Amino acid sequence: MFYVLPAIIFVGFVANVVSIFIFFGKELRKFSSSVYVLAVLFADTGFLVSLLFVWLEVLGYGINHTVGMCQFLVYFTYVCSFLSVWYMVCITVENYITICHPTRIKDMCTQKRARIVTVTLAVGPALLYSITLFANAVRSDPQSGLQRCDIKPDFILMNYIITYIDSILTLLVPSLAMTLLLIAIVIAIFHSLRIKRKRIIKGSKLQKKMDKCPQVRVAKMLFALSVTYLILNIPSHVIRLYYLLRPLDTSSSHQISFTEGMIHHIFLHVSYLSCSIKFFLLYAFSSNFRKRIREFLPCFVYTPVLNGYPSTTVSNV
User: Fold this and answer.
1) DSSP secondary structure letter of residue 257
2) Whether the predicted pLDDT of 131 surpasses 50
3) Contact 102/213 with Cβ under 8 angstroms?
4) Among 74, 91, 116, 118, which is most exposed with the fewest C-beta within 10 angstroms?
5) CA dist 149 → 138, 142, 155 (Å)
6) How far apart are the two ends of the chain, measured CA to CA in Å?
């Protein structure tokens, strides 16, 4: 596991930065869904940066246990994890409107509306988790003597409250919302396929018109992002709920066993993948993204000299 976390961090960071650059391009910037995709890429990248300091601690660099960085990283991690999941909910809602209510696309799926939702969502957690900037402090461990970033004694109760609120807002509500929306999308797709076989000529023309809509063309990409996010995060969410809801007592029964710890550790790393693999999903399911990637990162096979000038051949593989 020692090399898994840095691999997730560095691969994800580079992939997300490239994806952000690509989505700022003219071809993809015109879609309203691109606003949410860009937002979730920024949030994921921020979360990966916070994970970098966790890995540096394993290497012996306790930067996250210094005054200032302690408070900031706790706050930053809370905000990024909140935004990451809720921007994914926005992507799922956008896809739900596209698939289940295509006639409302022009009214509901606009860039202006997407920007307003994105900014509003960013303000919420920025205010909600601001208490963590004052609730944490660097204290000396009485046993080891090392400096540790820990909750202040006066804020222990507040920390429990924040933990439960965070679990509801970033675990229960978004997971349930995404699951229900995806079920509705799948039902709508099967219903559409069944009707397609019986479509009359007039309906066929209407379908062709809808297929030309930009939002409809990116629906497959958005669906892949939502489904993958749920699959990768549900195991860690279940474990987190288990530890959060089980009763605490003074007996040893509430202590985490080695097996439980390993399962939690594995599922946690699986959930981290959701912040790192969006580039690969975008490349697999978006033809516009692939086109931009090939323009941005051409694969030069050879450079023969013709008439005294170099000639570059680009591979299309």
Assistant:
1) P
2) yes
3) yes
4) 116
5) 4, 13, 14
6) 33
Q: Which CATH architecture has domain 4-315?
A: Up-down Bundle (1.20)
Q: 313 forms bridges with which residues in the sheet?
A: 302
Q: What is the value of pTM for the model shown?
A: 0.85
Tell me what pLDDT residue 180 has. 96
CA distances from 189 to 45, 96, 145, 239, 314 (A): 32, 11, 60, 32, 39
Helices within 201-308 (DSSP H only): 201-211, 214-217, 219-245, 258-273, 278-285, 287-296
pLDDT of residue 144: 75
Q: Above 90 in pLDDT, residue 45?
A: yes
Cα gap 110→33, rounded to integer Å = 8
Name every residue whose Cβ is closer than 8 Å to that of residue 141 and which is 6 or more positions away in sequence.
Answer: 147, 148
* pLDDT at residue 311, as a whole number: 46
| pLDDT, tens digit (0-9, with 9 covering 90-100), for 71-83 | 999 999 999 999 9
Domain residue spans in the chain? 4-315
Residue given tokens 């429990």 in the structure block: 160
What is the distance between the alpha carbons of residues 246 and 50, in angstroms, rounded to a whole number?
Answer: 28
Alpha helix (H) residue ranges in 101-218: 105-108, 111-128, 132-135, 156-167, 173-196, 201-211, 214-217
